[in-house]
Design a protein that fits this description.
Layout lengths: L4 H12 L5 E10 L11 E2 L1 E14 L4 E6 L8 E4 L11 H12 L8 E7 L9 H17 L5 H16 L6 H8 L4 E6 L5 E5 L5 E7 L11 H17 L11 H7 L6 H25 L3 H17 L6 H11 L4 E7 L6 E7 L3 H16 L5 E4 L6 E4 L3
Parallel strand pairs: 4-6
Antiparallel strand pairs: 1-3, 1-13, 2-7, 3-6, 4-5, 7-8, 9-11, 9-12, 10-11
Helix pairs in contact: 2-3, 2-4, 3-4, 3-5, 4-5, 6-8, 8-9, 10-11
Bound molecules: alpha-D-galactopyranose.
Alpha-D-galactopyranose binds next to helix 5.
């Protein structure tokens, strides 16, 4: 359920004792397939979801920036000057880093502003709350100051902000899905060219169900950046032999032919995952187009196996959720989704089996790990938007 414009505007009123000029919303995302391919020039297949973050904002006459989040109420209103935007180790580093990025690409803000944010994305669950916050900030700034940037540029700026100022070397998938999502569609994105296509998701037959393991992942402290480095090492070993410009430019057959050029066994497995996952993503999009949900589900299952064994970004809790799901009636396929090391699984489940699935998976998880795993039945949603606030 999205947070309403009225709610975030009322929150703005109670924090700043005036009305906002602009209200906006940006969704989180779930990736159906195509994991850890986006920084290897491959395909990804995410959709925006109907959970996300809302923002209300108004310009100020001075050069102060004020940030308040309903998700971090104890932090109160965090303030800084537009002229001293340093990254300080708290939640408002995300909006600040987007403001720094706008300035860096020729769009410095001409005055300060007041912001409130309120989100219903579970934190650290791998549903891209950081990307949603970045894209939301960009979308609200565009409306508030009339800055001529497109939603795609906002996605690219969000990724830049995350790479440069937050220190996570993420790809473009999360920001792109949050900026460009479409109701009842997934986005098939070629991360090498940024060409994309929308694929309809027919919710009358199957549902996308997310299960949250409750294991919080942290991309900075996790091995995410290591995985990226390992892929780069594999690529330079191949490129040294004049073979390839991006790992995902290789077909599985080509990879098998050239793989011995990668001396390190671990890097070779990382590259293998990227190459085969990219091929699976193309096949999955074709299967979806034909309405072959069984084939789509099998590819999801293979994706998980590869992420677990070759890419090594899963964990015991995710493996348990996936294995259990794959044994429940009416489940086409299940896999971990997002960066990994915790977070959520994504499950494609027959429509009439959804309730029983949610009950069985939570009961099994409770028995095994002693905690409740929240489940979310997702409807693919629209990308970020911001509008002038009218009472
Ligand atoms: C995180 C990153 C994305 C992508 C996924 C893995 O969500 O932000 O860019 O690399 O992990 O597919």
């Amino acid at each position: 359920m999205q947070i309403s414009r009225g709610e975030v505007a009322a929150l703005f009123g109670s924090v700043y004792e005036r009305e906002p000029e602009v209200c906006g919303f940006a969704p989180g995302r779930v990736n159906l397939i195509g994991e850890h391919t986006d920084y290897n020039g491959g395909q990804v297949f995410p959709c925006a979801i109907d959970l996300g973050i809302a923002c209300a904002a108004a310009r100020r006459e001075d050069r102060l920036l004020c940030f308040y989040s309903a998700n971090f109420p104890d932090a109160g209103v965090l303030k800084c000057s537009l002229d001293e935007l340093d990254i300080g180790g708290n939640w408002c580093d995300y909006p600040k880093s987007v403001i720094l990025t706008f300035a860096r690409f020729g769009y410095p803000l001409e005055s300060g502003a007041d912001f409130v944010f309120a989100g219903n994305l579970p934190d650290g669950a791998g549903l891209s709350s950081s990307a949603a916050l970045e894209v939301l900030t960009g979308t609200v700034l565009r409306k508030l100051y009339g800055i001529p940037v497109t939603p795609q540029q906002i996605a690219v700026f969000g990724q830049f902000a995350e790479n440069r100022f937050i220190g996570v070397n993420c790809g473009i998938m999360d920001q792109f899905a949050s900026a460009m999502g479409r109701q009842d569609h997934a986005v098939l994105l070629d991360t090498h060219t940024l060409a994309f296509d929308y694929a309809p998701i027919d919710s009358s037959k199957a549902a996308i169900v997310i299960v949250n393991s409750g294991v919080k992942h942290s991309l900075v402290s996790s091995a995410y950046n290591d995985r990226r480095r390992e892929c780069e090492a594999a690529l330079s070993a191949l490129a040294g032999k004049g073979k390839v410009s991006a790992l995902c430019a290789l077909s599985p057959e080509e990879f098998e032919r050239y793989k011995d050029a990668i001396p390190d066994e671990v890097c070779r497995r990382r590259a293998k995952h990227a190459v085969y996952e990219n091929a699976r993503t193309t096949q999955a999009a074709a299967a979806l187009q034909k309405g072959d949900l069984a084939a789509f589900g099998r590819l999801m299952n293979e994706s998980h196996r590869s992420l677990r064994d070759d890419y090594e970004v899963s964990c015991a809790e995710l493996d348990f959720l996936v294995k259990t799901a794959q044994q429940i009636d009416g489940v086409y396929g299940a896999r971990m989704t997002g960066g990994g090391f915790g977070g959520c699984t994504v499950n494609l489940v027959q429509k009439d089996a959804v309730q029983a699935f949610c009950q069985s998976i939570t009961a099994a998880y409770r028995d095994r790990f002693g905690i409740e795993a929240p489940t979310y039945i997702i409807r693919p949603g629209e990308g970020a938007e911001a509008r002038t606030f009218v009472r």
